UniProtKB/TrEMBL annotation, chains A, B, C, D:
One of its GO terms (cellular component) is cytosol. It comes from Albibacterium bauzanense. This is Chorismate synthase. The gene is aroC. Keywords: Amino-acid biosynthesis, Aromatic amino acid biosynthesis, FAD, Flavoprotein, FMN, Lyase, NADP. Pfam families: Chorismate_synt. FMN binds at residues 125-127, 244-245, 291, 306-310, 332.
Length: 364, 364, 364, 364
């Protein structure tokens, strides 16, 4: 059953395979009169695109995005916005060796059984290439959120066992500047260097490694999120878990919070000087969300990525006929996915916040 | 905007406040001709109900469920099934002291700002009492899944810092029997004892503590889950994160997987003796899901719960007018929520699997 | 697949069979702080309830509605509102004669094939009794729309070949008063008398007859309705066609409009004296909707009902085993459904307008 | 709020403005392994495209459709199918005269108020050009329905006051051949001639005229349609009413049925020779649908179109500043829309049937 849409009020529908003609997205429900900065959208795509540094896949895709509808004289019109990204540098023959083999920990086998057919070239629809469409849509959501001064920041907090220290600042513009100075996209320069070296080693060994991304969202108004099923963090969690290779999500105190006591975990309110201000709390173990609804504090969450499944080493596997075969990764792949995934995480977060911002208007 | 429904094909809509007349659920989309064992539904509710042991809240609710529609001569008819659970033992006066105070780490403040009105008695809609409706619906989903031999098992894997060892068996019936022998609902008797003692101490101190629940699902056919947004684990994650107090979700290798290498993380296929059998893998770091689609292996995931916010100690807080006030927990509350939450986790898992089982039929 | 919900932002889910324990509805998405006048809801139900006059079915149902959730101190809280209407006067034995017979032009055969099981008593879920839940939900939607001064009026415009003249007034309060003075619910007293007599004759003959209902909606703000698929009139049409026995829907110029020329059909704008007023048009062939969006003029539409299928005469039919059998209507049925359906049409119209009113807020 | 999608299991999302770069559609949920005949899709588009005969608009659009995703080696893969139709022959300057004028009975005014911005060129999103995307998606739905032998046939049954007689055959292939022999697309050659002449006269007068389209659908299996809100005819009605210029929908006995008696309207079952055959009925006033569910008989319905609003005559109207202005239609427009709309009606019908066919699988 149809499952390629996300969001209810600010809703996206993506399409496209890794080696098809194009990928893209329709954004339905974006309010009118949002100024569309196409250059910004392209910059966001550039942060995700392959071939951007020595530690990413060398596939050459410009990921040039064109807008086919929904914009008039530089502004959104309230009608569906179609963003199209042609595929340029497919090398489908890189994949002929896996035409009837099931790559371990890939979606080859499950797609084949589910559909009885699959576009094996580059992983088809299961390719992370699909996330470029999300980044484009997320960039538009960010432009919309700018009207509310809402800012989203993600960075690589771990590569393998290398963990970044806690963020040294809560100024997102500052953090962004630091992050973009290194190719790992970690906001701690020393750790970034260490991570970069480690990814280099991993790559040389033909191996891959997992990692983590930490996110903070600022200036979210109080009241976003629907109680019960569509809690704000439940939708953030689903959004993150829908990104390829994500194996875990936690917000606020997260998994560590499960070993805490209520007396230390409760976030005590601070008396605001002026009554019309949003309340603040002394601590923020709630991660900016209480009862599924934003409370005005910073929203923060962590996402865990497993290592990329395609490795440049020989592995045993099975083909469609059930024969034992050997397989070695070809094509151009990332040794570690998190540096590029940073922008995907931000995009999905922006889409969730935009969606709940619109949903909440029904009560106002 | 409306947000009290979950699922697309096997869809539930819940209603009810902690201190209203009743809570309940409509299940829409359950296939016809499922045998409805009302006794089983009641047993499931009994595992969640308050007052079941010395370590749970002493509110006395029989949680007696009646079926108002959708069943004819003991079988589902394909029409909406309405399950009603009246509230019996509300003590609303226990809550008059918080009528205009915001309890720390509760939903009082966010509901008030979002809606401009709230039913403060017992937390209203934000009360965990709402989960009884989910358990009733989940029990029905389990009865439907029995037709496919699908089994779901959850248990308490951690209370505070006390961690249970890995499960000693993969026989769910066996594990269930062990789990139900202790009031903590941990499938390792020695750890259960330790947890029980610790919860007793915590309770005596007027404090609360968090915990974790581990789940395994067996006999899920290959092919459930939609690629991209409605990945099977993304929907499981959203389901879990929608449960009160949940702060984290991970499946398969989870957060630990982020520090692994691809060469150790990849799940190698085992050659099946007969080609018509589903493929198995040597390891199961994928947690039974590849590319968002079930691969026939056991599905497993962990859920982290924060400590209950209501503690029996004095805390500083703020009232609706912005005055500093002191608050002390009254009412009847759990010192640790995970023993009762085990059945809620199972229920939500059953609802997700049932939903995707029906959704997948569109391709068959 | 689940199909018992209607609306996206103001969303209802109904349940219940004719001879089950109860019917009812969950309203999800109603904004908070709407004053709930339970007496008004009951009055609306009384206009639909059976046994209200000599020309309706004599089944005795008080249709007493209770609210189980979502209301606090007389106001909506923004959480799901559950309205429950117990069944009281089922005479299931009236239906034992059709247990395995397919009544002509009923849903017996189609339900049996679709589900392989059916609750034959009183038509089960296919009974018009389900519409009581819609009327209760519609009454709540009307209470919400009162905040916007939006008024909805339906009346019986035809019974068989007897047609009412055009409405003599556009004052809805006046029209309502006239309509409620007769049991047919036609706003033209002379025609009402004629209709009443005709229905009496039809009833005596053990037969039934169809009819039509005309509706006008006033004070709808400009801008409701989404372009393309969720046009305001498309959702009104679906709402009406979902009512039992409805075979046709037209709005504005309707079927007659198809024989007109553009030069006579176009609604010319009138220059408003003050620029901040909504524009009016000289004529209203557009029925208050242009491009699927309300234009501020009165919205008007007609709904056609087929004659009730249950007649008190012998008819040939077939049983589940394929034998020829004879069947004669038993039970208590309406000779003409439109006098009671007036309130159902109003209710569904209120639900559509409330839904689009909330949906439109996403653009504001 | 997002409203550019249609269908739940076989779901389409359209985008594009009349004078933007392109229009198109994503089809999500189409089952895998449907053979995609691109030539057939193009033939369907050719029947809708402008400039096809002397009685249609002379805008020159080849409406060439390309498939950007979801197809592999000529077959659907179960992933989203993107169909793109570039705009080629926009003459936006034809519309500069209406930049700030509200055309009577158009969507100019309502869009402006709803969104505060509009793409006035060619009507933007409100243009009937959007329906090309529906025709492309409908063609794909027809290819899917071919697997079930389901056939859909529409033709022009009225132009102005000229009515076609009842169809002389129930052989759809035969009827299609007759219909395509004339440019009006009426399956009665004599009436077609009369209609063609009348449209010629109307065109010469710079005027437009409405019309009606009749449809029959054959070989629909018993059981499609969900009771209560998503009745098969309610979804067909919504689909038709969502087409530009449609003012009315009726199925089966329709508006005429409202003047009939139950004793003449009831469809009596015919005893099938073999018990495993679907039951037939003597008459078909139910239009192939009972209780909202298909009963295996031919489904038939009528759709009423108002006259096109753009006429080549001077009309008084108002501009955005509230000044009285005169306006005369420019651009290239149809004097009568029904000959091209025939294929749009078929497309929307195919989409509804495909959607309910998949939805019904959840019960099987």
């Amino acid at each position: 059953m149809a499952g390629n849409s996300f969001g209810k009020a600010f809703k996206i529908t993506t399409f496209g395979e890794s080696h098809g003609k194009a990928i893209g997205v329709i954004i339905d429900g974006c309010p009118p009169n949002v100024e569309v900065d196409l250059e910004f959208i392209q910059q966001e795509l550039d942060k995700r695109k392959p071939g951007q540094s020595k530690i990413t896949t060398q596939r050459k895709e410009s990921d040039t995005c064109s807008i086919l509808s929904g914009i008039f004289e530089g502004k959104t019109t309230g009608t569906p916005i179609m963003l199209l990204i042609p595929n340029e540098d497919q090398r489908s023959k890189d994949y002929s060796h896996i035409q009837d083999k099931y790559r371990p920990s890939h979606a080859d086998y499950t797609y084949q059984v589910k559909y009885g057919i699959r576009d094996y070239r580059g992983g088809g629809r299961s390719s992370a290439r699909e996330t470029a469409a999300r980044v484009a849509a997320g960039a538009l959501a960010k432009l919309f959120l700018k009207q509310y001064n809402i800012e989203i920041f993600s960075h690589v907090s771990a590569v393998g066992k290398i963990q970044a220290p806690n963020l040294s600042s809560n100024n997102i513009k500052e953090l962004l500047a630091i992050r973009e100075e290194n190719i790992v996209r970690c906001a701690d320069p020393a750790t970034a260097k260490e991570m970069e070296n480690f990814i280099g080693v991993i790559k040389k060994e033909g191996d891959t490694v997992g990692g983590k991304i930490a996110t903070v969202i600022q200036n979210v108004p109080v009241g976003l999120g629907e109680p019960v099923f569509d809690k704000l963090h439940a939708d953030l969690g689903k959004a993150m878990l829908s990104i390829n290779a994500v194996h875990g999500f936690e917000y606020g105190s997260g998994f560590e919070g499960s070993s805490m006591r209520g007396s230390e975990h409760n976030d005590i309110f601070i008396n605001p000087e002026h009554s019309n201000k949003a309340l603040k709390t002394l601590t923020n173990f709630s991660g900016g969300i209480q009862g599924g609804i934003s409370n005005g504090m910073d929203i923060n969450f962590n996402v865990a990525f497993k290592p990329v499944a395609t490795i440049m080493r020989a592995q045993n596997t099975i083909d469609q006929e059930g024969n034992d075969v050997e397989i070695t990764g070809k094509g151009r792949h990332d040794p570690c996915v998190v540096p590029r995934a940073v922008i995907i995480v931000e995009a999905m977060a922006a889409l969730v916040i935009a969606d709940h911002l619109l949903r909440n208007k029904a009560y106002q």
